[in-house]
Fold these 4 entries.
Entry 1:
Amino acid sequence: MVFLTIANLIRCRGPDEFWRKRKIFRLAAHYIGRRRNCYSVAVRNVHHALVYATKARRLKKQDMKDLWDTRISAACEQHNITAFSMREGLERSNILLDRKSLSDLAAWEPKTFQCLAAVASRKLHLDGFIDGTDQKAPTGKNLNLDNVILDDWLKEKK
């Protein structure tokens, strides 16, 4: 484009505006109607969508934590131990597993989770720990700890 006067050059908005608008229109490409074609409408809707996407990332993390806690507490109730006691017993036994790992074990490896519950229960019994946080007693079956040889290992870790 050839400008004969400096006034025409100043009035030209240049490539910056084109690329700025193009970025918004690309984000609004899947919208319907004026929300995708009209810049002033598209920019509002894109900004709203970006705000919701930012909030959703935090909510997704919180939802996953809630799901993991629900799975752990349900599996602990089956083995007659509270989730707090389970975590405390595992921590005292130097078994450091996070929520996600315990949740996966509870869902996909029930025998492994049962052994972890037995280890936690035995360690809390040896330490004389009393769980006063949960007023609701678990309704699961009592663990048969006769065939689990843990006493020597748990006593040496003390």
Entry 2:
Amino acid sequence: MEKEICKISVASNWLGDEYIFYEDHTIKRVYDNHSLNSNKTEWLKPNEISKQSKDKIVKGCPEEFKEQVMQILDYP
């Protein structure tokens, strides 16, 4: 497994929603559908992430990783 760059939580309520970025430019999302269906995992490509979600990810990204994460997301 590639080295992790950072984890960014974009949860807006008590349900978890976290994106994990790796050095090989892969993106893993771990999220909860509801309280009985938690910690679901999916691997995403940048074009599978909505503009709204990308905005939240970049906004929540630690400054030292922001440029790298923006490149992975192909964020303007």
Entry 3:
Amino acid sequence: MLRKIMVTAAMLAAFGHAYAAVDVNTANEAALRGIKGIGPAKAKAILEERDAHGPYKDTADLSKRVKGMGGHTVERLQAEGLAVGPAGAAAGAQAAAPAQGKAATATAAAANAAGTQKSGAAVVVKK
């Protein structure tokens, strides 16, 4: 039982970053640097552009205004939890729901592989 709890906790910790979207219009430097793929220089460039010209309207606006932030880069950062505005944060929360299902599936698979289930029955997780 303890082993099952430990496996579940480890899986939730691993997928925890997918549940929180960071809004580029309200985030500070530390929050931006928390996104995989954004370092100190990129976070500084994002903040300086936002301070100089106001909030970003959408991902296309972010791509145009910040050097080195092309469309593919912004898409990758969105997958890591970057959002543009309240609508982007809501989309990030919806995108986290499938990740939660994957975490449950991975946790069940890990529990089956470890042989921690006492009944010996297979765990079926519906998506």
Entry 4:
Amino acid sequence: MSTIVFAFAIFCGWLVFDIVKHKKITLESVLSSLVVAVVAGIFWWILEWIF
């Protein structure tokens, strides 16, 4: 459960960062935020599994 919350937080943070940086929301920024969130979620899940 914490992996999903962490990935969602990363997605939102990355999306807000892109919106502030480019002053608009685009499909590319949403997709890049989604990719980063999925990768971060996978790494977080691996860390939870190891420790």
